[in-house]
Every structure is written in C-alpha cells, then in structure tokens.
Amino acid sequence: MELHFLGTSSGSPSRSRNVAATAVSFERSKAWLLVDCGEGTQHQIMKSQLSPYHLAAICITHLHGDHCYGLPGLLAAMMVSGRKEPVDFIAPKAVIAFVHSTLSLTELVLPFDLRTHALEELQLSLRLEFCQLDVIALRHRVPSVAFKITETLIPRKLHLELLKAHGITSGPHYNQLQRGFDVDYQDARLRSAEYSYFSWQPRCVIICGDNEKPELLANHLAGVDVLVHEATFTHADLHKVGYHTGHSDAKRIAEFAHKYQLPHLVLFHFSVRYHAEGMLEPLKREAQRSFQGQLTLAEDGLILPIAKQLTK
C-alpha cells in the first residue's frame, strides 16, 4: 500500500507544486484510488507510476475548485486510456452536478459507468473491491470530509496447529478457509475467522480535506498508520491573514497528532507563500516542537510506502 502525492499546494499551483490530489495504490490490485483532483491532476498522473486505465475510485473532499477542477480532463484521459470498467465517484452533490454538466456541454460520452455516490447521502461507509472507505465530517468554510481508507485484499494464513488439534485433516476445506469462507466439515461448520488469520494487519490511512478542527478526527483513529492533514499556514501566519480561512496550521495539527500518539503525520496543502526553497522550514520547526513521531512534509511526486505489521 502506497501514498502518491500528486499535488500538495493550497489554492493555486506554483512551479514546484500542483493543487490537491493524493492517490492510494494497493499491493494486491492494479486498481487505485484518488482523493481530490485539482486542475492539472492528469498531467501529474502522467509523471507518476500510475495509469488512468486502472483508476477505480475518485473521492472528492469538498467543492472548492483546487480540489475538483481537474475532473473533466482526468475523466477524458481515462476514456482515451481505454477504461471500460465502472468507476466509483464519491463527491458532494454540487461536484457531481459540475461533472455531469461539463460532460454534457462538451459532448463527452464516457465508455465506462461513472457510479456516483453523493457525500450528503452516503451512509458514512462504502465497501469497494479493494478497500473499505469511511467518511469523516470535518469543518471548513464549506462542508468538507476526510476519507479513512483501509486495505482489504490481504492474504490469509491457516492456524494449522489449531486445525490439527481439533482433528481437522487437510483437504479442499483448507483452501476455502484460507480464502475467508466458512465451510461444512463432518457435520460441523468451520469458521474462517477461527481457523485463519490475515498475513498482516490491515493498513489504514486518513486523507483529509480542508479542516480547521483536527479534533473531529479523534474518534476515528483506531488502526490508523498515517494521517495526511493540511497545514496551510504557520500558526502566526494564519492569524495574520485577516479573514476566516477554515484552514489548519502546523502547530494545531501537530499538537493533535501528539495528543493521540499518531505514529506518522504527513503535512500537505501548503500556501504558495512557502513554496520557494527553504520556506517550509518554519512549518517543519513548528510541527516538530509539538510532535515527536514520524513527520513528513509531502512534496509533489513523493511516494510513501506504508509498512506492514506482520501477524503471528
């Protein structure tokens, strides 16, 4: 499981950073998932290891343009790539309407089914073929969410000693149990959950949209390996802006990550004022003063593997 940072800027792009787009790829599937799709995302994908052909789900955190203006071009690129399989599209109703209107006005007919899921109607959870997707409400100037993404395609191993201890000899039922299916054996029902286990703990990441209140994530941190959260400003600069931005600063999110002992905090969505070489140092120092765990300030093009925790 890997995170691919395709765009790490806030508001508008610069020469070194594009606007919001983060991809998640999975070890046992060619399918991948995209969170947010700012203008120019299809160009960022062309520079990456990812293929539009295998993009299976697109998730949009909120309706601001730096998170969704790249959608029509990306969908057209997916069409050109030859994509025929359905694509799940999870987004606010307004963004879904924007996409459908653009496709209609430009007479673009997609060769695949764009399965839409309006965030306002989603029951906070969606099971995809390759991951579990949970939606967390955040606070911004407009409704915004985070996506909690948990991998599901994990090979299972058998509790061989337990099977032998219970007198269950080898046979086709072993294969079924290892694949996660319950089976009948000698007038008994064998439960896969009892006789098999995941090869590693499911890896999990939360990728946030714009959010001024990290504490809203507090009840959703169980099992999370990496939190990806915006740090648009330093604490001092945020209060100099002069209007309500609805954003977080590096100090605020670092204090939250320290309070809940998160193993890995990734900051992104940086204001263009910090894009020149060396200008991110104040953000980094501010975060490090409050958080002693693993800290990453994402750059465009960064690929971040999420390590496995093997089970026994």
Give a structural overview.
This protein starts with a strand and ends in a 7-residue tail after the last strand. The longest helix has 13 residues, at 93-105. The protein is globular, with a radius of gyration of 21 Å. 23% of the residues lie in helices and 27% in strands. The chain has helices spanning 41-46, 71-81, 93-105, 160-165, 172-178, 192-195, 235-238, 250-259, 281-290; strands at residues 2-7, 21-26, 29-35, 55-59, 87-91, 114-118, 125-127, 131-137, 145-151, 156-158, 183-185, 188-190, 196-198, 204-208, 226-230, 264-268, 294-297, 303-305. Strand 8 and strand 9 form a beta hairpin. Helix 8 (250-259) runs parallel beside helix 9. The chain has 2 domains: 2-154 and 199-305, 4-Layer Sandwich (Metallo-beta-lactamase, Chain A); 156-197, no CATH class. A 7-stranded mixed β-sheet has the order 6-5-4-3-2-1-18. A 7-stranded mixed β-sheet has the order 7-8-9-14-15-16-17, covered by helices on one side. The protein is α/β, with parallel strands linked by helices.
